[in-house]
Specification:
The structure holds two protein chains of two kinds. Chain A is α+β, with helices and mostly antiparallel strands. Chain A has twelve helices and 14 strands. Chain A folds into three domains: 7-54, Uridine Diphospho-n-acetylenolpyruvylglucosamine Reductase, domain 2 (2-Layer Sandwich), CATH 3.30.43; 63-173, Uridine Diphospho-n-acetylenolpyruvylglucosamine Reductase, domain 3 (2-Layer Sandwich); 182-273, CO dehydrogenase flavoprotein, C-terminal domain (Enolase-like, domain 1), CATH 3.30.390.50. In chain A, helix 10 (226-232) runs antiparallel to helix 11 (239-246). In chain A, 53% of the residues are buried. In chain B, helix 11 (334-337) links the parallel strand 14 (312-324) and strand 15 (350-359). Classes of the chains: A alpha+beta, B alpha+beta. Chain A: One of its GO terms (molecular function) is FAD binding.
């Protein structure tokens, strides 16, 4: 398992990183935690000419309080997300999802932003980020721009990030006091989800005032179960309302369609209870 | 005094080899660095069946650091054919098996060209610059289709049928005629089971280093079989055996997957001979999955006849066994090892076994943990459940009424074996008690009545197996090319320390610990004073290596006999030293004493006296070393009862094992900790066949499970806490009473899990589910839809990998 030869660059600022990306051209690649890219390199499924290692950009690490939202640095590791109090208090769903990612070794190396940029439709973080209406803050040669998650995930392993851009932060609105759950079905512990459902629910006076539902590995990217969300709002937080709404997660009769419905029901039930 | 306070045998000692293995304070083959060493990378065929019309190596040859690029044509005159040591019938078809393809490739992953370079990096880079033109041929993948001979894997053979091997109890005189039993039976059940293809997935990838210094060829290899490898490499290359030394250093697992003479071992040797320089090759995980031999892959058609009261009468087994594209070391014999085990612990009057071996364009199959016996055990344990369902009987009851009772041992089976000892009643009683069998049945009934989403299943496997391979005369009768004896030597050093040399070749089993325990007990020396040497043909000059749960039952016995020889000679010398009659000498706790006196000589004193040889009895040779070789008179027959409870989520198809009890009778136990470890690991691999693992191919013959992202090996998090216990009836075929435990867990567990899942779902109309029982397969069966096959099984993963990228 030996990768093809590549140039290794270690920028010390975001501006330098962006400049390096522009200089090295389309075949350069940013490496963050390396938990998806390194296997791909070693199997020679990809052979970038240059790797730009952004591990030195410490300003991209950590979670910050930004008023109505959290800013999660792209280089924040899964392990750090799991233990962050702001995430625990205001974006519980992200912590619960992160708990299920791979194993402790990978969670110590892999990064929040790296997972999103890799855009594997079976990756766990895409659906909750989509469901939570997160916004990507991106740096490029023309300066900064913001892209909502709904426009960021384009297709299998494809995002709106241009080859010369870097993801800096993810802005996640605060969901303080919402119940949340991630219902994941995978065959063995280290395997990707067959299907998983991320749900966050706000319950007020016994009825559902708002809901967010995202589906993992059902399409070529994460899916937002908007019909399920709409069906829940204003309903009493009962098993019956939840199972009625969950039926709208998918209309097909295939195995994954069934899982989407079953796991949506389970995720919502646990989110309401939690 | 060097007495040991309590017996070493039976003590749960931590393994003495573990510290170095776990901390990396050892030298694996890939760690070896020799001066001037070259690195070999292998270009592998991306297609399963094709003529090679051209190979252009000019670009690769010009790449930095490349010494030479070699193709099959370059070695055509000297590579010969890789050995198959088990021609199961006189008329078996055996195609030439070149280490590197010449003119035609027959499976995706077959070696096509080699880059020899100054570093592994340069070798990997240059692989991509070799241009090969393939003229593709029809791909033969399905065994039943292959037998129609429309397209041929090896056109020169004229057929895809390799051999047909038959055992018939009426012909053998061990039973009646099975067709008569079936014709007159009150109940006949016919089922077909598929044993999917598995990948051994040992932890340490294969690695080979060959050195040519000083007129010797020294071959380091991550192998289970250094002695057989030396013999076979000599036979294939013509290099004189005494000029070949094979070393298996610490080896990280094998499970049968390293019971092989591999193309790469031969190629490294040929390259080193040609270049006159050391050469190393180490595979990647994907390369291992694409080219190292696979296991299982059978279609089993089973017919069982019985009376209405549940008494079984006849068993007919018709197998198709997938050889893959070539016959490797024991490829054709693996299904034959199962021939004697389908009848298992049950008293069938008649038995017939017909196995047809078939060539396909896939990686060759060969030994994988259990080799033939897991397949047999699966089939019979599934059939006993099917019979119970057919007759509306409790599945344990039907086993109890048909098994060999403990007072019937030794028992001559319908397959022609003699089971020496066992007690199925005792193991079953203990397992049912540990499991809470009755309570579990009550819980199951409750959930059925409630229509619970999560249904409960209870699966039984009352298995036996044959191991301790093997009596040499039996192997000869089965047309196997080698014997099954094992050898051991003891060297008593002048300071009283002990070197043990064994012909077995441990690769994770813990022989160093157990062999030390045996010697410590026999000679009364401290455990720490024993060093076990193995795996180097220069120190361990003969042996038959490790596989088939043979090392303790055969190799351990050789060690006992060597220790007996040491003691016999020491006793003579002790009598001489103490000036008494040998008959008056007693040996206990490491010392010789004259009966009824206080005169004592420690073994150390006697060993030193033998070493200096100043005063030995007339005719006695100096020194206190001994060799012994043991050829067993029979196999050993571990058995046990495994009970598995599964919770099956009827909405998702997900199966979770909620309780697993394994009560095994492996004879006398030397080290219970190691036995538990073997059982746990074996269970994991057997459960993996039931639920997780399967090597699959696309219609072009490309392996679509060539990474651990796609080939699902379970880890501790996926498995339950195992409840293990033992009953003991010592083996009578060796003085240790040991039966072998390396394969038992794998053999027993697969049917226990599958029976359990089906037991959970039968009342919902499910009759069978193919292995591995993925959530999608289980759910699909619950919908009453046909099996989704392997291509559509939903999972994340990397999908198919370009075979050509093997080394990269």
């Amino acid at each position: 398992m030996i990768p093809a030869e590549f140039k290794y660059l270690f920028p010390s600022s975001v501006d330098e990183a962006v400049r390096m990306l522009a200089e090295e051209g389309e075949d350069a690649k940013v490496i963050a935690g390396g938990q998806s890219l390194v296997p791909v390199l070693r199997m020679r499924l990809a052979a970038p000419t240059a790797l730009i290692d952004i591990a030195g950009l410490t300003e991209l690490t950590g979670v910050r309080d930004d008023g109505d939202s959290l800013l999660i640095g792209a280089m924040t590791t899964h392990y750090e997300v799991q233990r962050d109090h702001l995430v625990q208090d205001h974006a519980l769903l992200l912590r619960l999802v992160t708990d299920t990612i791979a194993d402790p070794q990978i969670r110590h190396r892999g990064t929040f932003g790296g997972s999103l940029c890799h855009a594997d439709p079976a990756g766990d973080l895409l659906a909750p980020v989509l469901a939570l209406d997160a916004v990507m803050i991106i740096a490029g040669p023309a300066g900064r721009r913001e892209v909502p998650a709904s426009e960021f995930f384009v297709d299998y392993f494809t995002t709106a990030l241009a080859p010369d851009e870097i993801l800096l932060d993810v802005r996640v609105p605060k969901y303080t006091g919402w119940g949340a759950h991630y219902e994941k079905l995978n065959r063995v512990a280290q395997a990707w989800s067959i299907v998983a459902v991320a749900a966050a629910v706000q319950v007020r006076d016994g009825s559902i005032s708002a809901a967010r539902v995202g589906l993992t590995n059902v399409g070529s990217g994460p899916l937002r179960a908007t019909e399920v969300e709409a069906a829940l709002v204003g309903q009493p937080a009962t098993a019956e309302a939840i199972s009625d709404a969950a039926l709208r997660a998918s209309s097909g009769d295939g195995y994954k369609d069934n899982l989407a419905r079953v796991l949506t029901g389970r995720a919502l039930t646990a989110a309401v209870a939690g | 005094m060097t007495a040991t306070a309590e017996p070493e045998i039976g003590k749960a000692r931590l393994r003495k080899e573990d510290a170095r293995l776990i901390t990396g304070q050892t030298r694996w083959t890939d760690n070896l660095q020799l001066t001037g060493m070259l690195h070999m990378a292998v270009l592998r065929s991306p297609v399963a069946h094709a003529r090679i019309t051209n190979i252009d190596v000019s670009r690769a040859t010009a790449m930095p650091g490349v010494a030479v690029v070699l193709t099959g044509e370059d070695f055509a005159a000297e590579q010969g054919s890789l050995p198959c040591a088990w021609p199961i019938t006189e008329d078996m078809k055996s195609p030439p098996a070149p280490a590197m393809a010449v003119g035609q490739v027959n499976f995706a992953g077959e070696a096509v060209a080699l880059v020899i370079a100054d570093s592994a990096y340069h070798a990997a880079d240059a692989l991509e610059a070799i241009d090969v033109d393939y003229d593709e041929l029809p791909v033969v993948l399905d065994m039943e289709e292959a037998l129609r001979d429309n397209d041929l894997v090896h056109p020169d053979l004229g057929t895809n049928k390799c051999a047909t091997w038959i055992f018939d109890s009426a012909e053998a005189g061990s039973g009646t005629n099975v067709e008569d039993e079936i014709a007159s039976a009150e109940v006949v059940i016919e089922r077909t089971f598929k044993q999917q293809r598995l990948i051994p997935a040992f932890m340490e990838p294969r690695s080979v280093v060959v050195d040519t210094t000083a007129g010797m060829f020294t071959v380091w290899s991550a192998t289970q079989i250094p002695h057989i490898l030396r013999w076979m490499l000599s036979a294939v290359t013509g290099i004189s055996e005494h000029k070949l030394r094979v070393i298996a250093p610490d080896v990280g697992g094998g499970f049968g997957g390293k019971l092989q003479v591999t193309p790469e071992e031969l190629l490294c040797l040929l390259v080193a001979r040609r270049m006159g320089r050391p050469v190393k090759w180490t595979e990647s995980r994907t390369e291992s999955m694409l080219s190292a031999h696979h296991g299982r892959d059978q279609i089993q058609k089973i017919t069982l006849s019985a009376r209405r009261d549940g008494t079984v009468t006849g068993l007919k087994v018709e197998l198709l066994a997938d050889m893959g594209a070539y016959l490797r070391l024991v490829t054709p014999g693996v299904p034959i090892l199962g021939a004697f085990m389908f009848n298992s612990i049950y008293k069938f009057a008649a038995y017939r076994f017909v196995c047809t071996n078939v060539f396909t364009n896939k990686v060759p199959t060969d030994a994988y943990r259990g080799a033939g016996r897991p397949e047999a055990t699966f089939a019979i344990e599934r059939m006993m459940d099917e019979l119970a369902v057919e007759l509306g009987m409790e599945p344990m009851k039907i086993r109890q009424m048909n098994w060999i009772r403990h007072e019937e041992f030794p028992f001559n089976t319908v397959a022609g074996l003699t089971y020496d000892s066992g007690n199925y009643e005792a193991a079953t009683a203990r397992a049912m008690e540990l499991f809470g069998y009755e309570e579990m049945r009550e819980e199951q009934a409750r959930r059925r009545a409630d229509g619970s989403v999560v249904q409960l299943g209870i699966g039984i496997s009352t298995y036996t197996e044959m191991c301790g391979l093997a009596p040499s005369r039996v192997l000869g009768a089965l047309r196997y090319a080698a014997g099954g004896w094992e050898t051991a030597s003891i060297r008593m050093l002048p300071t009283g320390k002990v070197e043990v040399i064994t012909g077995t070749s441990p690769h994770g089993q813990g022989h160093e610990t157990v062999w030390s325990q045996i010697v410590a007990d026999k000679l009364g020396v401290p455990f720490e004073d024993v060093e076990v040497l193995h795996g180097d043909t220069a120190t361990s000059h003969k042996g038959m290596d490790s596989y088939g749960s043979r090392s303790l039952a055969v190799g351990g016995t050789a060690l006992v006999y060597a220790a007996d020889k040491v003691l016999a000679k020491a006793r003579t010398l002790a009598a001489h030293m103490m000036e008494c009659d040998e008959a008056d000498v007693e040996f206990a706790s490491g010392s010789f004493a004259v009966r009824g006196t206080s005169t004592v000589r420690s073994l150390g004193d006697v060993v030193l006296a033998a070493h200096v040889a100043h005063d030995l009895p007339e005719g006695m040779e100096p020194g206190m070393d001994a060799d012994a070789t043991f050829d067993p008179e029979n196999f050993s027959f571990p058995h046990g009862t495994h009970l598995c409870a599964t919770e099956v989520d009827t909405e998702t198809g997900m199966v979770r094992i909620s309780r697993y009890v394994a009560v095994d009778d492996v004879g006398t136990v030397m080290n219970p900790l190691i036995v538990d470890g073997q059982v746990h690991g074996g269970l994991a691999q057997g459960i993996a066949q039931a639920l997780y693992e399967e090597a699959t191919h696309d219609e072009m013959g490309t392996l679509t499970t060539a990474t651990f992202a796609d080939y699902l090996v379970p880890c501790a998090a996926d498995l339950p806490a195992f409840l293990t216990d033992r009953t003991t009836t010592p083996a009578t075929s060796n003085p240790l009473g040991a039966k072998g435990v390396g394969e038992a867990g794998t053999i027993a567990s697969t049917p226990a899990v599958v029976n359990s899942v089906l037991d959970a779902l039968r009342h919902l109309g499910v009759r069978d589910i193919e292995m591995p029982m993925s959530p999608e397969r289980v759910w699909t069966a619950l919908q009453g839809r046909p099996d989704p096959g392997t291509d559509d099984v939903a999972a994340g993963g990397l999908g198919s990998i370009d075979a050509q990228g093997g080394q990269s």
